[in-house]
Write a structure and sequence with these properties.
- Its main location: cytoplasm.
- GO terms for molecular function: glycine hydroxymethyltransferase activity; protein homodimerization activity; pyridoxal phosphate binding.
- About 45% of the residues lie in helices and about 15% in strands.
- The chain is built from 17 helices and 15 strands.
- The longest helix is centred in the C-terminal third of the chain and has 23 residues, at about 305-330.
- With about 425 residues, it is of the alpha/beta class.
- The protein starts with 18 loop residues before the first helix and ends in an 8-residue tail after the last helix.
- Helix 6 (about 125-135) crosses helix 11 (about 270-285) and helix 13 (about 305-330) runs parallel beside helix 16 (about 395-410).
- Helix 7 links the parallel strand 5 and strand 6 (about 165-170).
- It folds into two domains: about 75-305, Aspartate Aminotransferase, domain 2; about 305-435, Aspartate Aminotransferase, domain 1 (Alpha-Beta Complex).
- The structure holds pyridoxal-5'-phosphate (PLP).
- Pyridoxal-5'-phosphate (PLP) binds next to helix 6.
Length: about 425
């Protein structure tokens, strides 16, 4: 089943593009020139595309952008310096990139129903940094999901600016259910009176109750910052609740389910627009990356199509199917399943810790991450269906992936022997089908 504009109709195996064609088709017409000038780097590009095409990319934060997004990224807009904002730049020659940024902003606002959008953050972390810079002063107290429960580095890690410059209090998830304990969040908010409450996670598989967080923030007079880096693509496709009506500021990445270039984005109301813009430039960033902003505009345009809505819903259906297959085989799927693209599972019933399990899965060609688990100190596995769904896979393929996954974790199996089966599956779903 083809559910995305990027996905080609499935072809019988004997009509599949040659490995060589698959290896280079996404790298564009300038690959030969790069090969002549710098064969060492050209081969790395070719080999990385091959690696991405040759295994199951189950990292929950990754996806395959369209060729259109790649084209914008590899365009001469990369040459342009553009400090400031459209119509108010510190450099000459910005007439055209100004148009690109205005398009990106307008599309982001329309897509998410936001009064204001800033599309300049270089990454999700830069977006969070700017949100804090706009709303907080060093030393302020912030309530966010604790890192051992799935908070991001920018939610108070001592190794990150956030933990060094702010006083973070961590809330958690219930050990048994794996669900956010909203009563605990409220109690911590009342006890610590934070200046901001942050909702968002790197590994929470369920929808977040933004209305409940808004209520808690209002209860203590705090700002609400939604760090929706993970679900923002699902929001765009109508497959997850939108934090925009509830949060003072929404931070997001553009490269996960949203399927755009690597980068960040901020959304807010008119009241905070100027503070947010100044917090990005000149407070935390210099020149905007215009090639990336143009690529964000392309991705927002794609995300506004009915095909993307179908894609977002298929991502969730696939995650549910995959989670069901893993649970049926005896893995512990936290929270009992998922509402999103993301699953976290405990491989302990198979006798492997998360690192060993990830190693076995990697040997079989299944690429994924380890993550925190709600209960105890042990880690689990985090996987997502955004990339495989872009490739055109559906529930039938999720059943195959679950089977490969479980076989790789059986103590008596040799995971490397599954490599051929994985290749056979992914060759039917090339991320960049030959045109
Ligand atoms: C919740 C959350 N916030 C922030 C980020 C940071 O994004 P980036 O890696 O682009 O800095 C991530 C990335 O995974 C994330 O999941």
């Amino acid at each position: 089943m083809s559910v995305t504009p990027a996905a080609a109709p499935r072809r019988p195996a004997d009509e599949l593009p040659s490995a060589a064609a698959q290896r280079t088709s996404a790298l564009g017409p300038d690959l030969d020139a790069l090969r002549r000038q710098d064969p060492e780097l050209a081969e790395i590009l070719v080999a990385e595309l091959q690696r991405q095409s040759d295994g199951l990319q189950l990292i929950a934060a990754e996806n395959f952008t369209s060729r259109a997004v790649l084209t914008a990224l590899g365009s001469p807009l990369a040459n342009k310096y553009a400090e400031g904002y459209p119509g108010a730049r510190h450099h000459g020659g910005c007439e055209l990139v100004d148009v690109a940024e205005r398009i990106a902003v307008d599309r982001a606002r329309a897509l998410f129903g936001a009064e204001h959008a800033n599309v300049q953050p270089h990454s999700g972390s830069s977006a969070v940094l700017a949100a804090y810079a706009a709303l907080l002063r060093p030393g302020d107290t912030v309530l966010a999901m604790g890192l051992p429960h799935g908070g991001h580095l920018t939610h108070g890690s001592p190794a990150n600016f956030s933990g060094r410059w702010f006083h973070f209090i961590g809330y958690g998830v219930e050990a048994e259910s794996g669900l956010i304990d909203y009563e605990q969040v409220r109690a911590l908010a009342r006890a610590h009176r934070p200046k901001a409450v942050v909702c968002g996670s790197i590994s929470y598989p369920r929808h977040i109750d933004y209305a409940a967080f808004r209520d808690i923030a209002d209860d203590v007079g705090a700002y609400l910052i939604a760090d929706a880096a993970h679900p923002m693509g699902l929001v765009a496709g109508g497959a997850a609740p939108n934090p925009v009506p509830y949060a003072d500021v929404v931070c997001a990445t553009t490269h996960k389910v949203l399927r755009g270039p690597r980068g960040g984005m901020l959304l807010c109301g008119h009241d905070l627009a100027e503070r947010i813009d100044r917090a990005v430039f000149p407070f935390t960033q210099g020149g905007a990356q215009m090639h990336t902003i143009a690529a964000k505009a392309v991705a927002f345009g794609e995300a506004a199509t009915p095909a993307f809505t179908a894609y977002a819903h298929q991502v969730v259906a696939n995650a549910r199917a995959l989670g069901g297959g893993l649970a049926d085989a005896g893995l512990v799927v936290t929270t009992g399943g998922t509402d999103t693209h993301l699953l976290t599972v405990d491989p302990a019933p198979f006798g492997f810790d998360a690192r060993a399990a990830r190693g076995r899965l990697s040997a079989a060609g299944l690429v994924l991450d380890t993550c925190a688990l709600p209960h105890g100190d042990s880690r689990g596995l985090r996987l997502g269906t955004a990339a495989v769904t872009t490739q055109g896979m559906g529930e039938a393929e999720m059943a195959s992936i679950a089977e490969l996954f479980v076989t790789a974790l059986r103590a008596d199996s040799e995971p490397g022997r599954l490599r051929g089966d994985v290749r056979e599956l992914v060759r039917r779903f090339p991320p960049y089908p030959d045109r």
